[in-house]
Amino acid sequence: MSGVFIDIDHVLDYFLNHGFTFTVRRFYDCCINTDYETLTLLFHSYELILVFWGVIFLFSLGAIWKAAAAGATIHLFLDHARNMSSGKMGVWTYFLVYRLMNRFQTERIVKKR
Known about the structure:
Elements: H1 2-5, H2 8-18, H3 24-33, H4 46-58, H5 63-85, H6 96-101, H7 106-109
């Protein structure tokens, strides 16, 4: 479930950029074409994944938490690999600090095709 839950941030970005006029087709097109002025992708972040793993080990959380972290981590790695191989994203795109430094501006985060 965590491998899917991580994508909730796409919905957040859609609403931040396009308001509450939601259709599945428009949402899909926006995600595929990165049709956003700003791109936060809050949960797609190596820093947050590291914090998640840190909390798990710090508090000796059980297997369900480790499985959740593994799902989110694998999702992030696969997204990053796919988007880098397509030439859409760079090496630093999935670091929250990088996106923050670029003020979450899509034109500075996503490579032009």
